[in-house]
């Protein structure tokens, strides 16, 4: 039982080490985290609904997850193919494409949710 908990504890430790490595090495990851903080502040400011929180948290989680997987793929590609290779480039482009799609979807969801709030805010104050 003790070994079981020790193993689970180590799994969390390694996962957090991965997240930390991604934040340290990837400027895009830092941008995603900053955007997520901005989204949370906006959500609190406008007191968005539970369903809207779910959509926002899901979108942010998807973008950050995609960026971490992208970093993992880049790292593996750099390890196995540090020299130029068309397939290596394709793998990196595909992983970057996945992040872009997730980020576009998150931006669209954020706009759909926050635009009406911003509009009524603007109507009240301007
Ligand atoms: N070994 C390689 N062989 C062929 N093309 C490569 C290789 N490494 C990188 N590329 C090409 O250069 C692009 C940029 O690769 P790079 O490793 O610089 O990632 P990046 O875009 O800087 O990622 P990030 O900014 O997230 O760190 C890739 O998407 C790919 O098209």
UniProtKB/TrEMBL annotation:
The keyword Transmembrane applies. CDD domains: UDPK_IM_like. This is Diacylglycerol kinase. One of its GO terms (cellular component) is plasma membrane. It is found in: Cell membrane. It comes from the Bacteria. Keywords: ATP-binding, Cell membrane, Kinase, Lipid biosynthesis, Lipid metabolism, Magnesium, Membrane, Metal-binding, Nucleotide-binding, Phospholipid biosynthesis, Phospholipid metabolism, Transferase, Transmembrane, Transmembrane helix. It is a multi-pass membrane protein.
